[in-house]
Amino acid sequence: MNDTRNADWFAQKLSDKSIRGIALETSALIRAGALPVGTKLPAIRDLAFALGVSPATISEAWSELRRQKIISGRGRNGTWVSGDRFVAKPERLASSGNYGEGVLDLTAAVPDVRLLPPLTDALAYGASAENLNSYERSRILPELEAAVRRDWPYEPEAFLATNGGYNAVYTLLHALVMPGASVAIENPTAMRLLDILEDLGVRILPVQCDKDGPLPSSLEAAMKYRPVAFLFQPRLHSVTGQSVSKARLEALGNILAGSDTLIIEDDGVADISGSPKHSLGGRYPDRVIHILSYSKTLGPDLRLAVLSSSRAIVEQIQSYRSFSAGWTSRILQAAAAWLQRDPRTEEILARARNIYQQRHDDLTNALRERGVELDDGGGLCAWIPVASEPFAMVTLAARGIAVHPGAKFSILPSNHIRVATGNLSERSSEVADAIALACTTS
Q1: What are the Cα distances from residue 83, in Å, to 27, 43, 65, 89, 205?
Q2: Which residues form a coiled coil (predicted)?
């Protein structure tokens, strides 16, 4: 369909001439079917004249609809209605397949539930948490704060409990970053982080990485655009399995000196990593936001992460949270504090850490035996170079194996696949045989 609605038609339909009003009323017309997908919108100057507003007002309203992916196009080719779905969704995460029975699904880099600590005693303790069922919007339970302070990588001014690691990132970005701002992020990175940034409508500046972490030269190039934030994983990378070296962290800190860029450190894999915790918080306590998630170590149904920063930044994030949850369940906070005090928890985590590393190494060593060159790593997945992502995906699918293409984790062109290893307790040789075939198109 290639319908056109002229400026006079819009003038009859739109009553609110503000930027927000034009965007809302236009989206309502699209939702109602009055502006079907494919409809060409009038030129900005024509519509501005018909409505009696400035062209800048129309341009801003259209920009809002572009961010929502409702309209597309600009310039001489005009602007078109391109979508009529108004429910935001994480495009990268939502594009995961439903593979059915008989397929070895190695797409989800998640913990083995058999290796998580039992929660029965912890939750029973949590049911008697301090101030239980109070509507007071407290940032964090004192006993959880005491537990995390023991081995936090620096001494921050304030802590905040959140409903998981991605909830922490989502909340702080919406509280502190405006749509249209620039955000630097390591490339590749977790696809859910890219989903959050894309949904927020920021300009994403990819920072390339090697085995030691984000490349200083790439971060330096990104800093020329004055990003409002730099987001990276300072410990174990959830996609590549690499860890940021101490020397690399110091080099990144040197590049960030003299700027006002927020430094967001996302430790999502946490103590599955055997690497020590470290942070730039000691150098830049006024603008580092350090996040530690407990989903991979204590269990995703604890729905818990803790972030630290300056008191001013934590208050800003907490203020934004007041629009929704307001606080994190005291039952879950107390349960997490109990688990961290229980000496059995460290024994369970140490065992899980060793098993995850063994499963990772079983696959990567088998691949090396088959001529596939890849870096050492760890965690819950392997990042494997391939000649062609589409060829690799089809080759593995034909053998009943599902993995993720590297493009899901990258802004830049990618030639990798990500293979989850956390639950790969057997069949490593079979998987390695298939991947070795998938790695080359010759």
Answers
A1: 10, 19, 10, 13, 26
A2: none
- Dump pLDDT digits (tens) for 17-42: 999 889 889 988 888 888 888 899 99
Residue-wise pLDDT for 244-270, tens only, equals 999 999 999 999 999 999 999 999 999
- Give the pLDDT score at 66: 84
Q: Which residues contact 87 (CB under 8 A, 6 or more apart)?
A: none
What is d(CA 186, CA 232) in angstroms, rounded to the nearest whole number?
Answer: 6
Mean pLDDT of 227-243: 96
Q: pTM for the whole thing?
A: 0.85
Q: What is the CATH architecture of 118-341?
A: 3-Layer(aba) Sandwich (3.40)
Q: Which CATH architecture has domain 7-81?
A: Orthogonal Bundle (1.10)
Q: Which CATH code is given to the segment(s) 91-110+345-438?
A: 3.90.1150.10
The tokens 């269990």 sit on which residue?
Answer: 299
For residue range 147-163, what is the model confidence (pLDDT) as tens digits?
999 999 999 999 999 99
Q: How many residues does the chain have?
A: 442
Distance in angstroms (rounded) separating the CA atoms of residues 314 and 308: 7
